[in-house]
Amino acid sequence: MKSSVALQNALVLTCIVSHSLCYGFKFTQTYAPSLVPARHQSCATQKQGKGGINNFMIPRAGKFSKLERLNASPGLDEGRSDALQVDWSAIGLYIGATSVQIGLISLFLKVADFVMEQYISNKLAKKGIVIAFFAFMSLKSRVFSPFLDNSRPSLKSEKSNRQKRKTPSWTPPPIAFPFIWLTIACLRATSSTMVWEAKNCTLLNAPVLSFMLHLSIGDTWNCINNVERRMGASVSAVILVWLSVINAVRMYWGVSKTAGLVLLPSAIWISIATVLITSIWNLNGKEPLFPVKKSIEIKQ
């Protein structure tokens, strides 16, 4: 019953992705974005050309004396301005990929529970397997996401990307991120194992599913932010990542206060990351808060 409730909660949080991105579309249309990205493609189909996948143009200050083009399609007249379009196919892909990922993880947890109950009687051996599993998932949960490229940036690419955009003065150095994530992974594995023990040594339970949903949403965010480089949509998505980790901490706390406290630093770090991502977006022209299907022309 609790697993069923957790799956319902997972569906609700997944649906929030669509609502959040749609809200970002309305918000950005109202407040006139000052930075519009070049044509974006989804992670599944994106290819890099000579100029790279991130071609941005920031309009010059003051009035435009002539038509400014942002990677405009061939054949457009100078008197024409294309409407800003939401990339609904990308939004559908994000929602679908996240749903498939949490579904595959749930199936794996059910099978793992069956196998350990039937074939592994030593509780210490079970605990060792569970700790290793949670540690692996904390770092490589994207193996359950078959439709998106959720890879995290390397140290070299992170340094390169930082040179291409403005960042707050308090941004941690790139070398700090691997150490932060390794520490977070250890805390995640420890807290999740505590929950596993408190839930009669079963993996498929509501608190663990809430944590797996958090990982799945985080993997989708990695695609949006680190692969597709959609700064605006990344802001919308990182808020969902933050909400999901808050929910996971709440669920863990309900089972074991110690487990909730151990997972809490993960929520604190993601809160900081949310502020950082939003600040970077704000410093770089406030790109639309939704995926853009095609580039536009700006005329004044």
TrEMBL record:
Family the UniProt entry places it in: Belongs to the TspO/BZRP family.
Pfam families: TspO_MBR
Residues of the signal peptide: 1-22
Locations listed in the record: Membrane
GO BP term, pick one: tetrapyrrole metabolic process
Membrane topology value: Multi-pass membrane protein
InterPro entries recorded: TspO/MBR-related_sf, TspO_MBR
GO cellular component terms, semicolon-separated: membrane
Protein name as annotated: Tryptophan-rich sensory protein
Transmembrane segments: 88-109, 233-253, 260-281
Keywords, sorted A to Z: Membrane, Signal, Transmembrane, Transmembrane helix
PANTHER family from the UniProt entry: PERIPHERAL-TYPE BENZODIAZEPINE RECEPTOR, TRANSLOCATOR PROTEIN
Source species: Fibrocapsa japonica
